[in-house]
Specification:
The chain has a two-stranded antiparallel sheet. The model has no long low-confidence stretch (mean pLDDT 95). A hairpin with a 5-residue loop joins strand 1 and strand 2. It is of the alpha+beta class. 1% of the residues are buried. The chain is built from three helices and two strands, in the order αββαα.
């Protein structure tokens, strides 16, 4: 993933695994391969995250205006 270090990505995936949101699958291949998939619990986040994304799309102009107003304060 662009914009995130390998260390941060690994830590985040481990935290998600610990929380029961993803499962890690290790394949005994050369080179080693690891895959992650959402668990049933992780899949329950789809609708709330989709709603958050929809909200963000609907309100992006207001958010950007608020940022601009904030940043222009003395």
């Amino acid at each position: 993933m662009e914009g995130i270090s390998g260390k941060v990505l690994t830590e985040t995936l481990r935290d998600l695994e610990r929380d029961g949101l993803v499962e890690r699958h290790v394949y005994a291949e050369m080179p080693p391969r690891v895959e992650y998939e959402l668990t049933a619990l992780g899949r329950t986040l789809h609708a709330p995250l989709q709603a958050l994304g929809t909200w963000a799309e609907q309100h992006i102009e207001e958010v950007l205006a608020a940022r601009e107003a904030y940043d222009s304060r003395p």
